[in-house]
Amino acid sequence: MGQQLINKEHITHKRSMKAFIRKHIGWLFIIVSVLAIGLFYFYPMIEAFLLSFQSGAGASLKYVGFDNWMRLFGDPSFLAALINTSIYLLVQVPVMIVLALIFSVLLNDPTLKFRGFFRTAIFLPCVTSLVAYSVIFKYLFGVDGIVNHFLLNVGAISESINFLADPIWAKIIIILAITWRWTGYNMIFYLSSLQNVDHSIYEAARIDGANAFQQFFQITIPLLKPIILFTSITSTIGTLQLFDEVMNITQGGPGNATLSISQYIYNLSFEYTPDFGYAATVSYVIVILIVFLSIIQFKVAGDKK
Amino acid sequence: MKKYVWIVLMSIGWLVLVACSSGEETNNSSNEGTTEYEETNAITAWAWDPAFNIAALEHAKEAYSGDYDVVIVENAQDDIIQKLNTGLSSGTTKGMPNIVLIEDYRAQSFLQAYPDAFHPLTDVINTDEFADYKTATTSLDGKQYGVPFDSGVAGLYVRTDFLEEAGYTVEDVSNITWAEYIEIGKDVKEATGKNMLTLDPNDLGQIRMMMQSNGSWYVKEDGSTPHISENESLKKAFEVYKGMMDADIAKIVSDWSQFVGAFNSGDVASVPTGNWITPSVKQAAEQSGKWAVVPIPRLDMEGAVNASNLGGSSWYVLNVEGKEQAADFLANTFGSNVELYQTLVQEVGAVGTYSPATEGDAYAVEDEFFGGEQIVSKFSEWTDDIPGVNYGQHTYAIEDIIVTGMQDYLNGTELSQVLENAQSQAEAQLK
Amino acid sequence: MKKCKRIFIYTFLSIATIVSIFPFLWMISSMTNQSVDVTRGRLLPGTHLFENVKKLFETVDIVPALVNSGIIAVVTTFLTLFIASLAGYGFEIHRSKGKDIVFNIVLLTMMIPFAAIMVPLYRLFGGITDTMPFFGIDTLAAAILPTVTTAFFIFFFRQNTKMFSRDLIEAGRIDGLSEWGIFLRIYVPTMKTTYAAAAIIAFMNSWNNYLWPLVILQSPEKRTIPLLISNLGSSYSPDYGMIMTAIVIATLPTALVFFFMQKHFVAGMMGSVKG
Fold it and tell me: Tell me, what DSSP letter sits at residue B200?
């Protein structure tokens, strides 16, 4: 009798042990990442936050309270950067995501010939060195560049356009450059996720008489939703932190017409007499914007929280 | 299924191996680094151009007779700026060099942002022996921190063949004003179809050169008060710049390679810039004999001279272990060695700012590419005439504001308005 | 009709290909030209390939830089894949309120520009240089460590895990596999293409990473490829023919990694793999 009781207790204990392990083993899976992120990203991030309340040249920083945050509102360079970045974001991210989706669906077709070649070619821009492609873009769109030659020859324009010296054209070129470079990159994420989609779903849909468009909108898009959410958030982050293209193609010019927030941060930290405090404040503007946009994107995607 | 487990296990094993061996490797070499330092007193020096200042360091190292080994490390200029700023502001001096080359426009910014980071060299070199204009930028609060290196003395590189076609001689473009330059430019364009020069809307080096030829800068003498709306030289420089655009004698470029490409392919008739461009000009070997160098044009106003500066840099010693050795190295090489400067001119083409050196033979050498002229001796002669200005610590911050202003001005906004806007913006930004 | 559609698709892809690879071809063409021709914007291949390659190998230590970049990129890729997939799996499959909060904090760290945290991070490594020299400033380990665990890949694996069938996990549990066994024997093989995509991106990011290696690595013998190329371009009279040669060499590894990895993107993999 007593023995039985102990056994029973032992069993329930064992069972609860197992339940306990199952409930908490998840932490074991994430513990390394959480510690590393905490040390290498979260802790410096807090330091940067404290820095955003300080100002001064180089190593001589002083606490200035909310001065940096107030300074943002009266800083024309910052406002220009904010507006430019918003334009890049609104125009470029949707176009790129849609293009990448189209490419990935086309290139996922097993009956397509030269698939590997096409995929590699479309992926190549994000591998191509920044140095090379900034030189190329400047040549293509120079006053006597190839694009102008072409447009003049076909009679579309009567006089060369100085693309990089015109505030609107320069922005368009930056948008083209980002799209050119990152579409293939985003395509990878879709391509890889498409493999996880069971092909029989498409077979079934085809039997039901769904055409390619219907398949795309009613099967592919809903199935890829987690990845579409992923790419929209990471592209949003990428665009808000945009630096390489601007730095290498226009350096923010003409005037401040193409300046991005990240390039302004770079200028404040390295190009001018460094003010790491104010640079940190501007960085946190990016953080706030992304947090805000990400919440919207999570909501739109209907990701259950 | 088993296959995958094996793959994963093997990769982890391999990874641990690689990580360990690379860890060991780095461990060893960092140990070696420190012992090397203790035993042989190695000092490290950073500079950026292998064909220019790195080469100069190599020659200095050869000429140096001290007991210390000098390790020369090449880093891109922007990279040096980022490394220095990150290192110095984090307060860890580990990994910092002993000697570093800093562009003159940025020197004050570093000296003031990191007050204790640099080692004063007041007793190490005799500043009177260097070109006057260099002293203002390399010292702070009466203490000398930099050993002046290259002269950024500007010259007007001209294509004699294009000038001839338009009916001008080399004398006609010597010691002229910018207004005269524009007039000549128009004639050259008419006769040859070539533009007179290149302009990069994002790089106002031309404006800087024009201002300095009249002893003026974006900031007042204190180095920090913006001097824009009441700056007559700047105003004049703006007018000249617009004059060039209106006269349609400028080819617009958007980066360095296009700038170099323009004169290499014979698209422009002149290049007004610093003397360090000489190697790039000579790169187009088939143009040998078609070039000449004359003094840079001056602003058409009282006090302006036909001499100016663009760029140029100086050596600094960081306040870290080994600073005495580093100072000793600089004192015995760039600080006093006349022979070294001869080698620099001959082998590297670097025009120094050390006055006693200019008497040497190397400065008088004739260059066939430039029609047999003694261009080095010319450049060093002009160096003495460069008006000294305090660049202060905000050159690039203000220039970004000015670049925007220039766009407005070219698009028709009134000049006084443009400069007043720039002034108030600079005042707001540079508190 | 169907043929028409095919022709349209091929035309569309061909145009996209030309636009995509044009700068790449120019790069390759430039590596056969001398500097003067590159600055003049010459498009056609020239005859200076051998000269450029020779100059490159003579003037800079490109081989050690390739080795350094290789070590960093390979180690980073493996560690990233391992750590991030574990975390992505843990966050999604073993979801709990507490973990969701932690996950949101992790996501937050993806949003700050790296330039803003660089100085504190550098100070962190400066602080441990004396006590743990092989993780300190100027070591490959320090160049690798902060880059292996990024919110980006954790997020990527978590989103992909959302598409992973829970039935497979239940099946594994019924078969008596441990939680670890389920991850290793069911999840990892099923998510092969996700790993392939992550490997491409992780390799590329690491291979091209610039800012962090720049500040943390000091001695020339530890330099990575992007730092070396940055040096080549900063001289007053850069040799563009040689630079382009270096760039082409620097680009090839990532292109090759992609080319071999993309073969794993074969439609309908899912059905053929059984846990």
Answer: B
Please tell me if residue B127 touches chain A, with a CB cutoff of 8 Å. Answer: no
Q: A125, C23: Cβ pair inside 8 Å?
A: yes
- Complex ipTM, two decimals? 0.87
A82-140 confidence digits (pLDDT tens): 999 999 999 999 999 999 999 999 998 878 888 888 998 998 888 877 767 777 788 78
Nearest residue in C to A40, CA atom: C146
Residue C165 — pLDDT band, cuts 50, 70, 90?
confident
Contact between B422 and B401 under an 8 Å Cβ cutoff? The reply is yes
Q: In what helix (H) or strand (E) does residue B155 lie, and over which residues does it extend?
A: strand B154-159
Residues B101 and B137 in one domain: yes
Specify if B283 maps to a domain. Answer: yes
Q: In angstroms, rounded to a whole number, what is the distance separating the alpha carbons of residues A166 and A171?
A: 9
pLDDT at B46 over 90: yes
Single out the residue of B247, B244, B267 nearest to residue B178, CA to CA.
B244
Same domain (yes/no): B135, B170: no
Q: Is residue B6 part of a domain?
A: no
A256 to chain B: which residues are within 8 Å by CB? 400, 404
Q: Is B50 on the interface with C (CB under 8 A)?
A: yes
Q: Which domain holds residue A2?
A: 1-51
Q: Which among A255, A270, A274 is the nearest to B404, CB-wise?
A: A255
User: What does the pLDDT average to over C154-163?
Assistant: 92
Give the gap in angstroms from C-alpha C128 to the nearest C-alpha of chain A. 13
How far does Cα A237 stand from its chain's mean position? 4
CB A105 within 8 A of CB A220: yes
**Do A250 and B394 lie within an 8 Å CB cutoff?**
no
CATH number at residue B91: 3.40.190.10
Residues B160 and B227 in one domain: yes
Specify if A154 maps to a domain.
yes
Domain carrying residue B77: 42-151+311-368
A129: helix, strand or coil? coil
Cα torsion angle, A184, A186, A188, A190, sign: negative
Same structural domain, A165 and A129: yes
Tell me the per-residue pLDDT of C11-65, one tens digit each, with 9 for 90 and over.
Answer: 999 999 998 988 888 888 888 988 877 777 777 888 888 999 998 898 888 999 9
Q: What is the CATH number of the domain that holds A169?
A: 1.10.3720.10
pLDDT at C122 > cutoff 60: yes
Pairwise CB contact (< 8 Å): A25 & C94: yes
Distance, in Å, from the CA atom of B144 to the CA atom of B124, rounded to the nearest integer, reads 9
Q: Which among C9, C145, C197 has the least Cβ separation from residue A189?
A: C197
C41 touches chain A (CB under 8 A): yes
Nearest to A240 by CA among A181, A291, A186: A291
Residues B301, B262 share a domain: yes
Which residues 204-263 of chain C have a CB within 8 Å of chain A?
Answer: 204, 229, 233, 243-244, 247, 250-251, 254-255, 258-259, 262-263
> Tens of pLDDT along C75-118?
999 999 999 999 999 999 988 999 999 999 999 999 999 988 98
Looking at residue C31, its pLDDT comes to 87
How many domains does the structure of chain B reveal?
A: 2
C20, C96, C119: residue with CB nearest A122: C20
Q: Give the integer Cα–Cα distance in Å for B155 and B153.
A: 7
Record the tokens describing residue B359, joined without a space: 């008497």
Q: Which of A58, A139, A143 sits opposite B113 (nearest CB)?
A: A58
Which class would CATH give C64-272? mainly alpha
